[in-house]
Amino acid sequence: MSQYLDSVMETVIKRNAGEAEFHQAVKEVLETIAPVLEKRPEFVKAKIVDRIVEPERQIVFRVPWVDDNGDVQVNRGFRVQFNSAIGPYKGGIRLHPSVYLGIIKFLGFEQIFKNALTTTPIGGGKGGSDFDPKGKSDREVMSFCQSFMNEMFRHVGPDTDVPAGDIGTGAREIGYMFGQYKRLTNTFTGVLTGKGLTWGGSLARKEATGFGLVYYATRMLQDAGTDWNGKKVVISGSGNVAIYANQKATSLGAKVIAMSDSNGYIVDEAGINLDVIKDIKEVRRARIKEYADIVPGSQYVEGCRGIWSVPCDVALPCATQNELNGEEAAILVSNGCKFLAEGANMPSTPEAIATLQGNGVAFGPAKAANAGGVSTSSLEMTQNSIRLSWTFDEVDQKLHGIMNAIYDQCTAAAEAYGEKGNLAAGANIAGFLKVAEAMLAQGVV
Ligand code: NDP
Q1: Residues in contact with ligand 1 (CB, 6 Å cut-off)
Q2: Are residues 9 and 154 located together in one domain of the fold?
Q3: What pLDDT score was predicted for residue 1?
């Protein structure tokens, strides 16, 4: 079987030259599904794996817009519609200068399995642009978002493809894109999630990825016979996922002592004051450095990667891909870290994962642990379809139930395929099985 999977991997590398992040994401999944293919030869015959690594559709387009000086700027836009076997494509839009096709494909590929785990009917997709919203005026961001939607509107729709936020795409950007979609199509539909509460958004969507991450990690702690009480937690990033992971972990008795942005990190042994972080990051869109000027006793350290040298019991990487390497994982281990759950997508390198798992650190993989965001987006789609809004508690309870179901699927699949306790293998196997069954049933399409 490994020969067959090696040959699929070789084709992926050849066909998608130079897309290192995409190769990494595919390899991580292929390495864990051999036991499934042994038991299910019909998947091999139907070439499910060969098909699942090839996006159904990739759209690459020009995004021209005018800046505040009156100069024309040109960015590149992407939408990768990866797999629609179990529902309409669903996945966020990343706006960051590092974005290129390989990043969008890695994210879209991960999204297939993540969305399958959510227990809701959504396929996998992802989009974005190399546009950097940082430092742009609201008018410039609007100009970009409208131009982006001028192309995207042809390819998305409430029953076709439903984008959402990601790095650099928050409520402001979703608003501008939604407005333009509505104008172009003369329809008011749930074509995007992460919308404002007065125009179709869901309560608890903003909190969902961070809260869901903590619900998932709670199960990891419980399985080890412990809980959040008194645990020291380090969270990288200070964006949407990081902030609400902090809020939920703190409410359950943990002490979050470090957070970061792409410039550096802060340490506050007294427990980070989240109101200060929200003011800096959500209200003023400023740098985390300011925290140390505002909160006595805290300190700021330049350079974001050093955050992993802060001793902790639980680490929650919530910034970006490959933000934790093998050496940094070894430092976490030697400082006594016992749990790591991924809030960001693919934040740990393969070396980091091997180091953590090899040293008895409980490891919660992104495609399961951070699935709370897309799950709640799916709940937003449901509310849009039935034209009703649920209360915060109703959505939060459903989210909690989904995260528990995801955790149960991971542990059950790992055990059924001889990898007891390996949540990463369990997530890949459970997600793959659901999509593979659907692809098989739908024939060669
Ligand atoms: P935000 O844009 O809200 O925040 C991103 C945070 O990460 C910021 O603090 C940012 O710092 C930091 N960051 C970005 N790039 C880098 C880098 N190269 N090095 C170090 N830090 C960096 O994004 P989100 O919180 O929404 O997303 C964070 C991660 O979670 C991403 O991997 C995303 O794909 C994933 N995710 C998000 C979901 C969601 O619902 N939002 C759902 C599931 C996964 P700075 O301000 O300096 O750029």
Answers
A1: 165-168, 209, 237-242, 261-263, 304, 318-320, 323, 343-345, 370, 373
A2: yes
A3: 62
User: Would you say residue 246 has pLDDT above 70?
Assistant: yes
- Catalytically annotated residue among 126, 206, 232, 338: 126
Residue nearest to atom 46 of ligand 1 (CA): 261
Active site annotation includes 278: no
By residue range, what is the domain housing residue 177? 2-188
Determine the pLDDT at residue 219.
98
Distance (Å) from CA 5 to ligand 1 centroid: 32
Do 178 and 87 have their domain in common?
yes
What is the full DSSP assignment across 96-145? -TT--HHHHHHHHHHHHHHHHHTTS--EEEEEEES---TT--HHHHHHHH
Number of structural domains in the chain? 2
Q: Is 397's pLDDT higher than 80? A: yes
Kindly state whether residues 173 and 254 are assigned to the same domain. Answer: no
* Over residues 198-207, mean pLDDT: 97
Stated pTM of the model: 0.96
CA atoms within 13 A on the CB side of 170: 15
What pLDDT band is residue 2 in, cutting at 50, 70 and 90? confident
CA–CA gap between residue 316 and residue 258 (Å, rounded):
10
Question: CB count, 10 Å around CB of 153?
Answer: 17
Average pLDDT over residues 266-271: 98
How far is the centre of ligand 1, averaged over its atoms, from the C-alpha of 104 (Å)? Answer: 14
Same domain, 155 and 224: no
- Centroid of ligand 1 to alpha carbon of 62 (angstroms): 24
What does the mean pLDDT of the chain come to?
97
